[in-house]
Amino acid sequence: xxxxxxxxxxxxxxxxxxxxxxxxxxxxxxxxxxxxxxxxxxxxxxxxxxxxxxxxxxxxxxxxxxxxxxxxxxxxxxxxxxxxxxxxxxxxxxxxxxxxxxxxxxxxxxxxxxxxxxxxxxxxxxxxxxxxxxxxxxxxxxxxxxxxxxxxxxxxxxxxxxxxxxxxxxxxxxxxxxxxxxxxxxxxxxxxxxxxxxxxxxxxxxxxxxxxxxxxxxxxxxxxxxxxxxxxxxxxxxxxxxxxxxxxxxxxxxxxxxxxxxxxxxxxxxxxxxxxxxxxxxxxxxxxxxxxxxxxxxxxxxxxxxxxxxxxxxxxxxxxxxxxxxxxxxxxxxxxxxxxxxxxxxxxxxxxxxxxxxxxxxxxxxxxxxxxxxxxxxxxxxxxxxxxxxxxxxxxxxxxxxxxxxxxxxxxxxxxxxxxxxxxxxxxxxxxxxxxxxxxxxxxxxxxxxxxxxxxxxxxxxxxxxxxxxxxxxxxxxxxxxxxxxxxxxxxxxxxxxxxxxxxxxxxxxxxxxxxxxxxxxxxxxxxxxxxxxxxxxxxxxxxx
Length: 545
Prior knowledge:
Layout: H1 3-28, E1 55-57, E2 64-66, E3 71-72, E4 76-80, E5 84-89, E6 94-104, E7 112-119, E8 122-132, E9 145-146, E10 150-152, E11 157-165, E12 170-179, E13 184-193, E14 199-210, E15 226-231, E16 235-239, H2 241-246, E17 250-254, E18 257-261, E19 265-270, E20 276-284, E21 288-294, E22 298-300, E23 305-316, H3 319-325, H4 339-356, H5 359-373, H6 375-390, H7 392-402, H8 406-419, H9 428-447, H10 471-485, H11 493-510, H12 515-544
Parallel strand pairs: 4-10
Antiparallel strand pairs: 1-2, 2-3, 4-5, 5-6, 6-7, 7-8, 8-14, 9-11, 11-12, 12-13, 13-23, 14-21, 14-22, 15-16, 15-18, 17-20, 18-19, 19-23, 20-21
Helix pairs in contact: 1-9, 4-5, 4-9, 5-12, 6-9, 6-12, 7-8, 10-11, 10-12
């Protein structure tokens, strides 16, 4: 195996993975189903969140309609903070609409990322409530009351209370607490029991959505959309929609969190850390999927008050905010199997960004750092390739001498390598060792929302989108061509033609890749060309001396 063949196999394997992901997304994974009947996401068992006896679930955020077709609708509470514009319905007291004020859907346009939505075609809502064992329940089907219908954050904190009463003296107040600059929402549920008997019930929190395909800046790149769960025992787990269809999840644990993620953004519930919660998933009619948790039974004696605390995160997957909300929540940034490598790369990327204030420049500096890290390892590989190039004419002569006699040809080549002290595999190991780092960097640049729509310089005003003029991909193809000229050409004519086509193939593929990724490969190629040129001149000088 020569170095060119190793590089070719690595490149084709990488392309094959991308093609397989795209094919899976388009032809294998189940498509979204129209939401014609939302039956509600009840935790654990279908009867755990009781529906009012005179009501029947229909379309929307568990919209309610009576059996006599008299529709029950909640009022809308509008909340505006420095990062959110959202709507809470008094029907269920749940957030059904949420826009991210600092994240436009497309750069330069006014349309904002609509993370939560309660209407077709995208259903993505968060719900919470209590399951009472004493009759009516303040769940996400109940009618809550509000003090006012518009709230605006003017200080460091905004509290939005909703209340519910059962008529017997039990009052439940659910308060959403918004903090300036934060995508963390504290949810306080206070049960005040002024009745003559004790009250008992369970809290539940859940996320519900359909398999709506989000807009993508690049149709060739597919990222994970689905459920995620974190527990101290099993750590981070992905539970995709097909898993929810196959089997209902039931896990009891203390601490942890559950949510759903998509590219760049995510939603998660973090229940009380000190109590045991039961985590669950469900696949519902109408193409809806639910993941959530419910608590053990909590008791509030007559004349007493109890407050239950939970945390909702809904927004961009900013790693500094995620890590401060709950242990393991930063894993919502989906770097895949190589997270252990990708996280240090992102830390280094952020470190450079804090100095230069430009993510594109930070990518260049990270490229220099990675190249420096593997400098000595790469040097050994490039020395091997330089020596191989020097003996290339002799290898061609051997091929002409022995013709189709592969056994004699291989023996002669091995003797030549031994005489010239060349390890034919010497250039393979450095390439193979660096592949996990390259893949980790790929996912770091692809998954980090901090780089989303970030400008670089000149015509590149969005490094998370492809180059609009295809200049960077062309530059990459040129650098790849010159890098190949420094490597020993394959003896086999078929391999020679394939290698000659690689710069064109990769130029076409990179034309649709995010500009930040192409920028990395250009800088990496330029550094490789410089290092190989210096090493090759040294080897030639040693040979001639």
